[in-house]
Amino acid sequence: MLDLTLTPSTDPTSVYRYRDGLYAADLLTAAITEFDFFTWLAAHPSDLATLCRHFGITERPTDVMLTLFVANNFIRRTDASASAVFHVNTIAREYLVSTSPFFLGPYYVSTKERPVVRDFITILRTDKPANWASYKNEKTWTEAMLTDEFATTFTAAMDCRGFTLGPALAKKIPAAGRTRLLDIAGGSGIYACTIAAHHPHLTATVFERPPVDVIARRMIEKRGYTNRVSVVAGDMFTDPLPRDHDTHLFSNVLHDWDVAKVRPLLAASYAALPPGGLLVIHDAHLNADKTGPLPVAAYSALLMSVTEGKCYATAEMETLLTEAGFQAFTFAETAADRSVMTALKP
Prior knowledge:
single chain, Arc Repressor Mutant, subunit A, Rossmann fold, 2 domains, 7-stranded mixed beta sheet, 3-stranded antiparallel beta sheet, 45% helix
């Protein structure tokens, strides 16, 4: 059996950040070269809705863009509400506003034809994610995941990430008195296996749609955890969640979906959990007022490009959890800019 209680001796955060923040520069380039965003905002402090109307852009990607710029201190928001007004800060007024003698816009023009920059312009206007990694011969992420080749490659990528993130998550889960964990859209099962390794009294089930369910079974067997972790095939959006689990886990799942799809996922979890059941959300979370952390805001730009989602602020997630009926929220940082939120079904 593979020892999944091992933890690395060094901090992997800097390595994660190179990949997670890869698209942030392209989003800034799109804002400067296509929309001259900061010049207009400097003259017209505005809320999200007004910015969307003026530039002909849509809410989800604009929210991600604004959060990135706030986290970079290019702009500031008056408060954390949906009606907050955004203002340009001094650094952006000097370097990102076209009327400034120090304007750096021309410095970005040479990169404006990069495929990800062009994709961001389209995403901002349509709210439709780009093909995976902006490859023109690739499908969107949700469509590509239905093919064996892409699903195998993507699941392997998420699996290797879990060897670092999984132990940090397992240590923060309040597992005392819990017996069965349901890992919803659990991919390769790496998190279910790691949690089982750290909490020997727990067994787990991975709930995944084909063809990933077959991949999960193979990888769970390879790790030697088939006696502790099983797999049930199903689509979390259309199939009922398995019952008889007192703990549910969404690990790096909710950030792939917009609010309209997160709501029914949380409602389905609430319905399937018994009274007193525990919901665990492992993800990269923004702080409550959406001013950072900067690495999470940068990661959200990547997610916004290739999925239907984004990184959620803790306050946003608490609102959605409250709507679903959950109570007693907790938050803890784990590893590599990730964190865990928990909630209870009363």
